[in-house]
Amino acid sequence: MLSQLLADHAALQRALGFKFRTAGILLRNFVAFAEHRGEHVITTATVHEWALQAPSLEQRRNRLLGVRRFALALHAEDPRHEVPSVGRNEKLTPALPQAKCYR
Known about the structure:
- The protein is mainly alpha-helical.
- Helices cover about 55% and strands about 0% of the residues.
- It has 4 helices and no strands.
- α2 (about 20-35) crosses α4.
- The mean pLDDT is about 90.
């Protein structure tokens, strides 16, 4: 389902004159990740989990913003799609395990 939604979204973007190359690659990767998990709608948890797999903070933010734009478009037609928030306090770094003190 997400694959078809992405294909429709990409066709619309291209019809509007956007090249949609980098964004298309990014979103195809996200859709493959979400569909592998059996998901049919975008969820904030899945977006964050996928974005956190990027090696740098800048790439994580790019992933989050790219999927957010896609989610906004889908949410306009189907409110089941969650739109991840993006703010200064957005946690884009993975949680580190707590150090245990050994004596």
